[in-house]
Structure formats: C-alpha cells, structure tokens
Amino acid sequence: MRYRRANVKGGTYFFTVHLAERKLRLLVEHVDVLRDAVRTVKQKHPFYIDAFVVLPDHLHAMWTLPKNDADFDMRWMLIKGNFSRCMPKNERRNASRIKKGERGIWQRRYWEHLIRDEGDYARHMDYIHFNPVKHGYVNRASEWEYSSIHRYIANGTIEHNWGCDINGEWRNGYGEE
Fold it and tell me: Which of 79-93, 141-155, 158-172 has the lowest mean pLDDT?
C-alpha cells in the first residue's frame, strides 16, 4: 500500500519514528550506531537537521531538504536499514515480516508533517526539545543528552533552563494524551 505523503522539494518536515517494540531502549543504548547511520545517509543524500531528539523507543526530527529534493522517505529507509544491520538478529518478528524477509526493529511507518510557516516551525522545534521532559526522563530539556537542544543553547538561541517542568505546567502544553 502506498501512502500519500507531502512532496515539497526543499521543504522542512517534522518526523516521529518508533521502534516496533515500544518497551525497548535500543535507540539510546546504541545511539552511536544511530548517529553513524544518519551521518552516512546525510553524506550521500544531504539534508539539514533543524532539530533531533532520541528517546529510548522513538525519535523526533525536523529536517530541511535540498531545494530540488523531496525524498525524505528514501533517507528514512536507508537510516533505518543501516541501523538495523548493526543490531543483533534477536528481535521478535511476526509472520508477515518473516515472509517478507524484514527485520522487526522499526515500525514500518512513521509520522511526517510538512512545516507550513514560522509558527509551525517554532511549535515543532519546542515539541522536539521538550519531549524528554514530557515523557518524564528529565526535569529540564537541557538535561537530556540525546537532543539538538545543546546546539541551540551553545549558540545562545535557547536558554539553559528552557523547558523546565515546574508542577506539570509545561507538560500540559505538549501532549498526545
């Protein structure tokens, strides 16, 4: 089945990508493998990483593609494949995956959203950086090691104490509940 996806060359996109088994911690346990997979794909098929956060079982990213390119799907396929090839073959696979010769590390699909304007960009940037607080991994966004927030703190765009969860006030602003 083919899914309709946004197809804007040079567009900026927000993504959510999940592991197949949501209770695993593969992404943070093997974050260097994930970084290498992204770096390898980025070298051959360039894109700009606007924001990125890696959590134990999923990640969020915002990318801007080159002005004559809209093929984020191929990039995700390569990143997921490169990462999977480095993992031991001990994951659970259902009959469909076995029949198709697929690994069972990633969910087949992912969420993508075309960023429409500056406000949309800012909301998704904040969502990415706040996500570790939302999930209760840290109390302040800057405490999460696997986040592009550190790049923005270093260049002075975001303050170090941004994204505090004081009495759950921030948590109410970002949720899928």
Answer: 158-172
Distances (CA, A) of 89 to 25, 92, 104: 16, 9, 9
Among candidate residues 126, 156, 162, 167, the one with its CA nearest the CA of residue 141: 162
Q: SS3 sequence, 70-131? A: CCHHHHHHHHHHHHHHCCCCCCCCCHHHHHHCCCCCECCCCEEEECCCHHHHHHHHHHHHHH
For the segment 69-107, what is each residue's pLDDT rounded down to a tens digit?
A: 999 999 999 999 999 999 988 878 788 776 877 778 899
Residue 177 CB contacts under 8 Å (≥ 6 apart), including other chains: none
**Backbone dihedral angles phi then psi of residue 109, each to the nearest 5 degrees:** -100, 170
Q: Is 110 a catalytic residue?
A: no
Which of 3, 13, 48, 146 is flagged as catalytic? 146
